[in-house]
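Cont'd.
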Amino acid sequence: MANPMEQFDVVTLHPLKAGTYDLSFTNSALWMLVALAIVSVFLFVGTSRPQLVPNRWQAAVEYVYDFVRKMLDENVGPEGRRFAPLVFSIFIFVLACNLLGLIPWVGAFTPTSHVTVTLGLALIVFITVCVVGFLRHGLHFFSLFWPHGASIPLGIFVFIIEVLSFLSRPFTLAIRLFANMTAGHVLLKVFGTFVIALGSFGALPYVFGVVPLAVNVALSALEVLIAVVQAYVFALLASLYLNDAINLH
Amino acid sequence: MPQFDFARVFWPQFVWLAVFFAVLYFVVVRSTLPKLGKVMGERDDKIAGDIEAARAAKAAADEVDARYHAELEVARENARHVIADAKTAGTKASEARLATAHDAAEAAIAAAEQRIAASVADAGAELRKVAAESAQQIVSRLTGIEASAEAARARVDAAMGA
């Protein structure tokens, strides 16, 4: 039986070194590049000649863009629109990586199943939140962690908890996406091996493989859903964190 | 899990992610979305403007409609007045004509009655004269006495009761 973790192996396609750092072009980088290429085509074709009455491509891009803008309007308010390009980039990049990783047979790799990639994306959000927060509010940004109208000892206690929760945000954000993607792909792979194992049962070949195959079909649909939902959750949390930085609740 | 083999997987992925995301954000998104946002804004403005224009047109139409109804109401009121006036005028005129006709008829009746009375009186006088003369002649024939005309007249008047 194939190891279900094998699919997460990062394979070097073109070795590259910068000093002591290994910057090899890997299958992970390749699929990030594929995601970038597809998103670029989508965006460039969709906005090549923007018109008041959009064509199909433009309508598709607008749909996603409008979705992100509405999310920011609802969760951040009028100031949130400035961050629409950033949240849009994160959303569409995560979405593209999630969905491309589900393509069977082509040796697809899911970059978002790697905590390194998701942490990188989460850090973009986290650093943006910190920069925006300190630029807008200066040291007053720390009032985000102070409970309103609490006594000093309780306040200090809550302050410590709030700071820890704030600092853990990039990790929870990263781990949520990475864990979802990893779990889904492991599950698909495990049921895939069941198809082989049960389908090659000597006396009645193929028959028993149908059950795990059916499960895998259902799981694939579920994984597509999860791929979209997790991209949405990532972008939604990014906009909620931006709201903290902009409005200090 | 290969994901936690950071010594091997961290830098190659992290750096390429940074490169690709930077390209995505600074090159692709920054050069496409603002164009789209501008068009979407224009569209929203156009739709809002069109709706505003439609609302104004509807208000104007409503105003015209209200004015039309008001004018119609005024015209109807006027017509009602004209009809009522015509009715009263007609009634009055016919009543006046009826009254004059009535008066004329009364006058004609009175004149006729007078004429009848005069004729009756004439006829009576003639009758008495004839009767008196007849009586005079009858008396002279029967008795040979010449009765005076006055006496005969008095007798006739007494006999006829007047």
